[in-house]
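Possible regression after last week's pipeline update?

I re-ran a chain I had predicted before the update to compare outputs. Posting the input and the new output here so someone can diff against the archived version. Not blocking, just want to make sure nothing changed silently.
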Amino acid sequence: MSDLESWLRKNNMTTNELATLAQCSRQVIWKVKRKIAIDPKIALRIQDATGNEIVPDCHPVGKARL
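New output (post-update):
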């Protein structure tokens, strides 16, 4: 069980409720559960919505250098 799934159970909250609270899609929450990197702005909203208990992985900002 991921940290986010534990947090959801502890706070008696569904994936949909967290997605609404963090103003993102259920698919983004799914990615966080599986530790897939997401957009930093959305990661910050999820972190705020969870009271800084969950810190999602996020991908770097900007273009990749070749």
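Follow-up from reviewer: compared with the archived run. The longest helix spans residues 40-49. Marking as no regression found.
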